[in-house]
Amino acid sequence: MAMCLATRASSGAATTLHYKWVVENIFWSPDGQQNMVMAINGGFPGPNITAKVGDTVEVELSNNLNTEGVVIHWHGIRQFTTPWYDGTASVSQCVINPGQTFLYKFKVDKAGTYFYHGHYGMQREAGLYGSLIVEEGDQGQKEPFQYDGEFSLLLSDWWHQTVYQQEVGLSSDPFQWINEPQSLLINGRGQYNCSLASRYNSSAALPECSLGGGEQWAPNVLKVLPNKTYRLRIASTTSLASLNLAIGGHNVTVVEADGNYVQPFSTTDVDIYSGETYSVLFTTNQNPDENYWISVGVRGRLPQTPQALALVNYLPNHASKFPTSPPPVTPQWDDYNRSKAFSNRIQGLEGTTPPPPADYDRRIMLLNTQNTIDGLTVWAINNVSLSFPPTPYLGALKYGIKAAFDQTPPPDTFPDCRYDIMSPPANPNATTGNAIYTLDFNSTVDVILQNANTLQPNDSEIHPWHMHGHNFWVLGYGDGKFQRGDEKLFEKAGRRPPLKNTAVIFPFGWTALRFVADNPGAWPFHCHIEPHLHMGMGVVIAEGVEFLADVPRETLSCGLTGMMFSGNGEEGHN
Amino acid sequence: MAMCLATRASSGAATTLHYKWVVENIFWSPDGQQNMVMAINGGFPGPNITAKVGDTVEVELSNNLNTEGVVIHWHGIRQFTTPWYDGTASVSQCVINPGQTFLYKFKVDKAGTYFYHGHYGMQREAGLYGSLIVEEGDQGQKEPFQYDGEFSLLLSDWWHQTVYQQEVGLSSDPFQWINEPQSLLINGRGQYNCSLASRYNSSAALPECSLGGGEQWAPNVLKVLPNKTYRLRIASTTSLASLNLAIGGHNVTVVEADGNYVQPFSTTDVDIYSGETYSVLFTTNQNPDENYWISVGVRGRLPQTPQALALVNYLPNHASKFPTSPPPVTPQWDDYNRSKAFSNRIQGLEGTTPPPPADYDRRIMLLNTQNTIDGLTVWAINNVSLSFPPTPYLGALKYGIKAAFDQTPPPDTFPDCRYDIMSPPANPNATTGNAIYTLDFNSTVDVILQNANTLQPNDSEIHPWHMHGHNFWVLGYGDGKFQRGDEKLFEKAGRRPPLKNTAVIFPFGWTALRFVADNPGAWPFHCHIEPHLHMGMGVVIAEGVEFLADVPRETLSCGLTGMMFSGNGEEGHN
Known about the structure:
Chains A, B: Pfam families: Cu-oxidase (PF00394), Cu-oxidase_2 (PF07731), Cu-oxidase_3 (PF07732). Chains A, B: Dimer. Chains A, B: It comes from Linum tenue. Two copies of one chain form a homodimer. Chain A is mainly β. The first copy, chain A, is 6% helix and 36% strand. Chain A has a six-stranded mixed sheet, with no helix packed on it. Chain A has a six-stranded mixed sheet with strand order 22-21-26-31-28-29, with no helix packed on it. In chain A, strands 1, 2, 3, 5 and 7 form a five-stranded mixed sheet that branches. The longest helix of chain A has 10 residues, at 336-345. At the A-B interface, β2, α1 and α5 of A face β2, α1 and α5 of B.
């Protein structure tokens, strides 16, 4: 992984980490095949950021792309009082144009495992991502567990077709889906058209990889000592794949999810949906003469992509010592009961996770459907497919530029309460829209994410929904259509709802969330599968913008806000 | 070719043509292989514009790309009094961001054959181009020749690798050249991996194309009647290839070059460099029972691309009647004496082309060299490789924003007057720069474009230089290094220098141009080979900006001009 040297400037307790990054496309071999990658400072993935609670992170981002704008979103960071640095095009800021530099500056106020990524078009899938770790500060809260060392595993999926071509396919009639990824990557490293594990299988379809260890696509090696406890910080920035991670011969204990401590539990493997992060502990209590595989495989879609592998190297064994045991087998992709059981084991940790407010002020039902508009395939929420406007919402809201987006609020519930979620939509037509949900400041909001059948009979997909600017409590998961009375399912015996920023809806199911609208700003809430968001699968919420200081002008240089300072607002076009 | 219906609004003699265009990437098969193409209104090439002298052309351009800005340059249109609508990123305007619409509005004041194309990154090569024809008006000047019908042939070259990948290769160490095109296209149509002409050659390497006629890559058919005279309007928007066009069995008479009438002359074939346009007349005086091939082949580089073909279909023959004679053979690619002889035949037409001013006020020598900067291969002019700034020059000049670009003028002559143009540079290092040549308004300027050896021994390439905003007189071409006294070569017996906007420099040679700096604005002057410009092969000139009205604000929304109206100029970054 590319190294990054930050300038660290401390004054008293406050530390500022200052990074200078240049974004550009480069050639790289994430999986042994050279492809174009959207890189930072000439490497892939982007540099690691490791900060402490209370630090200020400054990233001076220069766009060295040729014709594309760029932004970077700090996934999981709430950006309290700095919503303009959330890094989402059309929402928090105007994109940074080629040749320009933009300064992100925000405080990291909560320890946890996070990551960052492009949030414009499909630049995340193009390779624009990296790790962001926030450690507990020297004062203040202590972590409710102990370990001897840690590793960061940033998981992603990789395609050989450029995202430019994929975007055209998604907007074509007939629709051209991006299909399954060619490779899964661990810290940007995977293997295509060869396997590290074929020697366990004499009838393996792929030849064994020939690797010296210095290749860009050589697997990660985690060097450990026997009888120690290690923390794995796992983050999934996949564009599509739902994943499962396991370590051969070792159980793991889940201790953190999405930057929130959870009630520890032991498991053989961990499900990770795109946008989620987990910390797990594992103890090196196995035969110290052996090395072991970490395997990452696909769940929730019929896998057409081989497992990604990394090596747990018990020192002083050499890293080239091949594990005796094959990599763990990924659970059956469509064993959703197993997936649901895992998700239901995630509970808030008492003492660190407060319980949710007892009741809600507003409930918003969000029906997830696949639809068609003018012959194109889209995703829609309550029959509206989100189309991002050229003027960012935050500036438009702050300065009352009503022409920037549709002022009629989107629906708070299904277009038809009798909607049959078990069948393809009776009327597949949806509309395009860019209206937003305006929430009362500090109100408690429930969201019921309702899954449904796609345009194909007997088909419903996984959607991991990610909310910017907030953590939400996951009240519960259910099957079928959410019904009056299903609230009782929220209160399973003794279950404490976890706080998360990403939660999955299972096929033909629903997921209930609760959050407090306490962060002034405008925030996307969307399916974290990148082509799904590109096809309109998201909403935007806003609250308390009136309590914000002036929005920095360098975030407002486009669209109608770009015309604002010239007193010439009528000249903008939508 | 895609059709375009303009709204035509006349008031008295003045007509306004109004077009609504949407730019987006689509899948298309320019040569039988489906690829991504940057298209306008869903077709490729872009719509034809046909206007009359005195018309106002309005193009309402919407950017429907996902993450890229866009601009369109109206190649050959002088944009007198409207330099902000010249459509060059970093020079005349800020790019149009995704989701935004920009109105180009300009008068076409000179009859001729023109075209339009993207002028940002390598969006021209990506497919963003089309024809622009200006006919003589109903009053005023009459064309100095007659014909019965006309056809437009827009010539281009086509690659299967995306321009995004090509751009990365050009900026990589080791350098990755784009190599020769896969296909040549006539009006966006070519044939890859098959040949229309293989039946003439029993040992042909390519199989015969199987075409029904309705394919996107089916050749153009020019339907003609016997014993008539037709005008072919030929424009080359190639990214790389120098071309030669011939019609089987027919001579042609050259009558127009780059929108200027020329002394007519008859020839078997026409050389066309990228950025040039020609009109030729041909008479259908051959055996009317036959059809004939138009062939377009590569000159000036070792050809690795098959000829492009179109069909001259003598009615009432069926278009499927295969020509008895094979397509004309393109002259030997490196027969530069033949090329120079052709270029020297282009003379201004008395009565339409004034002679150049007798003397110049300023002479600028521009040495064209290939260099390296920080391990990257570049092209440099007087040792400076042009790097476009994020703030467009025009607004920066008009409003005196000196921080927008380097204020030290670039050199008016070679870095070393003893420079040996016949050898690779003794010191291959150059510098990157963005300073401009500021010309006295209405002064007469001579430019000597001096070619040189590249980084490879015994190698010098063709470079067609195109000037925005002006026509120049081509005073002459010479071999070797321009010497004191070579001015006498300008005055060959009886030769009247032609007016053009694009002129080639031959390998190891020089080309002398003269123009009057009479068009207030900032104007690129550059090699029209797109990867060469991308690698820095150009300069920017400016004159008379003080005489301009206010620059339209919608062209100023980026960089330091974007900050200007907020009184916050210090916040911009370069």
